[in-house]
Specification:
20 strands; nine-stranded mixed sheet; Ferritin
């Protein structure tokens, strides 16, 4: 069975759990990523003399497995990792973690047990990386990114800068045009590359050569030596081991220089970066004037803020037709003095192609809002404006941070690359407006008003009643979709004001049942049906040569196209439904089918009961299909059997309810069942019940109690019979289901997976979006009705009424004035 992303994530994060309580969270990555690296290169490259990584004798994961349980396991692991490091010039990269550190891992048996369990986790079949690539998709590389993101979260502000969120990296890679890099000497460079994730995302966007490798050479520089090691491991795990990452302070000592002169920077086709924000000590080691002429023609950047120093370094490192993108705090768009002078010259030269405003609290090292500045030297002199996007309001909460959703990424990229002007979101701002009207201030709020319109209160409506027609008119997109619905809901009471024709509680039902709403729903269903018909054939014909990422790209593009004209549903929300399902389920299914073929869908996974020590036993607790869910098999082939079980279960629950009612009615001090109740557990003690029946049997004085005891015993016996019947029926059904998995034909498998699972779940998600349309409209209509239903005269009359009642009560109590 092909390796599944979810299984990788689960097992590797379980390895982190083994370190909790001893190792500091900031050090997890040193141990986990090292083991992940050794396991991966062993599975992929051991015995391959042509591989990028050589696995020497005594330097493989197999040697780690042999060290399990040894009293000197920590020392042995260090030796194994050291051999692998020396064989591949990775000293100081993969051998940073000390596996013999008693302070971190404990002493004696504690260390032996912890490291043995840790190695055992990576030994599991779920982490067999010999089969890690399904149709060109790097699932182990994605697993590495998953870990890096989680380590960045755990590390917090102090170390989070080594990782650029993958969502932002993808945006930058897609807007710089690297996807069209068809030249023979294309290069991509990151002067502050951190763990290399941004470079990897950029390279992944480039076209592929005939051998399947990206059509760009990768270069980077990183100041922190430990992070350089992370980047090198990251490159190997993403099959980009040829990437050149050099250590050093880029601003003070740039390592990538022209072969013609040591004072001339090497220039690149594409440059991307997420440098440290507002670096205060950036001038340390930087000469004035600058050795590399990076600030020539500009004002020297402020002494205690390095934002523009990084931007100018990037511009200097770009070829004459080079393109790039840099993440910087939004202050660079509007700050004054030296930065204003630099900004003016950059804008005048036409180097800024676009600006993308991002949400706040997106990055791990800071919570301030940032932006992506897209640079393009090609045709810079002819550039007539800057394309701006304010995406600051589009995100989801993820713990303490904000995260861009798939819909947000897609919307940004589509708008930018297509120069789509979207109200309150994006527009092409002409140079005159920037230079003359706003004096080179690039603050996005000057050009795009992304705020919600103010919800105004109407004085006349509050005084005289009635909903202002302007508020009803503001719902124009609904009336355009449902032309007669407005007249169904409202009638005019006076000029400019209307009232509801229906009670508030009937509004939602009236909208949902309206013919035009139902007709519009069919438009959504037709759009889904069109998408389904276009994509079904390709899904049914999936084979081992297909790439899951290519499949989902095709599915998503068609989905957006088919829903572009469906009213009241945002096509990007529909896209999010598909991509969320892909992340949770579909990607694993596609990887499995593209590796194992459709026959792999017959496989079943089992969950076993555990003993007191938490070890799996041979007793099966539950099972499910690895691709086809058990409930899909049951609903398709065993509907009658499941219905019979449901009836038995219902009868059993009714009997249990009757028995509980008996206990409730006959307990207490004088209750007939008092003598057999276990007071601590508040349940009937079976042994006491049997004994008490024998005690009171045949005694007239206890006849009522005897009958109650017998009745309760009868209830228990009936329950036991039904419980046994349910258990036997479930066991029989389970056996039939397991047999059915094994006997599924390929045709049946395809129908179950594509129709009953994939299309069914995706349709339900999209249908929920349309249901929300009714909810949003009805909520707003009710809100407006409630706002103006009580006029000021009504309120005054109500106050007078209550005042009169209070005065009457006071008078009756003898208080008058």
């Amino acid at each position: 069975m092909a390796i599944r992303k979810s299984a990788i994530y689960s097992q590797i994060w379980a390895a982190c759990d083994k370190l909790r309580g001893g190792v500091e969270p900031a050090r997890y990555k040193d141990y986990i990523l090292t083991l992940l690296f050794v396991k991966y290169v062993t599975d992929r490259y051991k015995g391959d003399k042509w591989a990028d990584i050589q696995v020497p004798e005594g330097g493989s994961f197999n040697d780690m497995v042999a060290a399990k349980g040894a009293t000197s396991i920590g020392e042995k692991l260090n030796v194994i990792i050291g051999k692998l490091a020396r064989a591949n010039d990775l000293k100081g990269v993969i051998d940073i973690a000390d596996f013999n550190d008693e302070d971190q891992l404990g002493k004696g048996k504690e260390m032996v047990d912890k490291l043995t369990d840790l190695v055992a986790i990576f030994e599991k079949p779920e982490l067999n990386f010999q089969r890690n690539r399904a149709g060109g998709d790097d699932i182990i590389g994605d697993a590495y990114e998953y870990l890096m993101r989680n380590f960045a979260v755990d590390s917090g502000k102090s170390k989070g800068q080594f990782y650029t969120p993958g969502e932002v990296s993808r945006i930058m890679a897609k807007v710089i045009g690297i996807g069209k890099a068809t030249g023979t000497d294309e290069t991509v460079y990151d002067p502050a590359c951190g763990s290399g994730s941004l470079l990897i995302r950029a390279a992944d966007e480039a076209p592929l050569k005939a051998d399947g490798s990206p059509n760009v050479a990768i270069y980077g520089q990183e100041k922190d030596n430990a992070t350089v090691g992370l980047a090198k491991m990251n490159f190997v795990l993403h099959n980009k081991a040829t990437g050149e990452i050099l250590p050093g302070n880029t601003l003070a000592d740039p390592k990538h220089k022209s072969s013609l002169s040591p004072t001339v920077l090497k220039r690149f086709s594409f440059v991307v970066s997420n440098p440290p924000f507002s670096l205060k000590a950036w001038r340390d080691g930087v000469s004035n004037p600058d050795t590399y002429d990076r600030f020539d023609g500009y004002t020297m950047p402020p002494e205690k803020n390095g934002d523009y120093a990084w931007l100018l370094h990037m511009l200097k490192s770009m070829k004459d037709d080079g393109k790039g993108a840099i993440i910087l705090p939004r202050g660079v768009l509007f700050r004054g003095n030296a930065e204003a002078a630099i900004r003016r010259k950059i804008v005048d030269r036409g180097y800024i192609e676009g600006i993308i405003g991002l949400p706040a609290n997106l990055f791990y090292g800071t919570g301030i809002p940032a932006c992506v500045i897209v640079l393009n030297k090609e045709h810079a002199v002819e550039r007539q404006g800057i394309f701006m996007i304010d995406a600051s309001r589009d995100y989801r909460k993820d713990g303490s941070k904000n995260r861009l959703r798939e819909r947000d990424i897609k919307k940004i990229v589509t708008a930018f690359n297509g120069r789509q002007e979207i109200p309150k979101y994006s527009r092409l701002v002409p140079n005159e407006e920037i230079k003359v009207d706003n004096e080179y201030n690039l603050n996005l709020s000057r050009y795009i008003d992304s705020s919600d319109p103010e919800d105004l209160q109407d004085i006349s409506g509050h005084l005289l009643g009635g909903i202002p027609n302007r508020d009803i008119d503001a719902l124009g997109e609904y009336w355009a979709a449902f032309p007669s619905l407005r007249d169904t809901l409202f009638s005019e009471v006076r000029k400019g004001y209307s009232k509801l024709k229906l009670p508030k509680e009937e509004i939602a039902a009236a909208i949902a049942k309206h013919p035009e709403f139902l007709s519009s729903a069919s438009v959504m269903e037709n759009a889904f049906a069109a998408w389904q018909s276009q994509t079904k054939t390709s899904l049914l014909n999936l084979s081992s040569g297909d790439t899951p990422k290519g499949i989902i790209n095709d599915l998503s593009e068609r989905l957006i196209s088919d829903f572009a004209r469906v009213p009241l549903i945002d096509q990007y929300d529909v896209y999010q439904v598909l991509m969320s399902y892909y992340e949770m389920t579909l990607q694993d299914d596609l990887f499995s089918i593209c590796y194992d073929g459709w026959k792999g869908c017959r496989e079943v996974s089992y969950e076993y009961a555990k003993d007191k020590q938490g070890t799996d036993t041979t007793r099966v607790r539950s099972f499910d299909g690895k691709v086809i869910p058990r409930d899909v098999i049951v609903s398709t082939f065993f509907k009658d059997e499941q219905a019979a079980i449901n009836r038995l279960t219902g009868d059993l629950e009714a009997l249990e309810q009757q028995r509980e009612t008996m206990v409730e009615e006959m307990s207490g001090d004088d209750g007939l069942l008092t003598e057999v109740i276990d007071s601590q557990k508040n349940t009937i003690d079976k042994s006491k019940l049997t004994a008490r029946i024998e005690t009171v049997k045949g005694k007239p004085a206890f006849a009522d109690e005897y009958e109650a005891l017998l009745s309760y015993e009868k209830q228990m016996k009936q329950e036991a019979i039904y419980r046994k019947s349910v258990k036997e029926a479930v066991a029989a059904l389970d056996e039939s289901v397991i047999d059915q998995y094994a006997n599924l034909t390929i045709k049946q498998i395809k129908a179950l997976v594509v129709d009953r699972k994939w299309f069914y779940q995706i349709y339900n998600g999209i249908d929920a979006l349309y249901t929300a349309v009714c909810r949003r409209l009805s909520s707003r209509v009710v809100e407006l009705a409630e706002r103006y239903e009580c006029t000021l005269p009504d309120c005054e009359a109500e106050v007078e009424c209550y005042e009169a009642k209070v005065n009457l009560h006071l008078k009756e109590m003898g208080f008058e004035w």
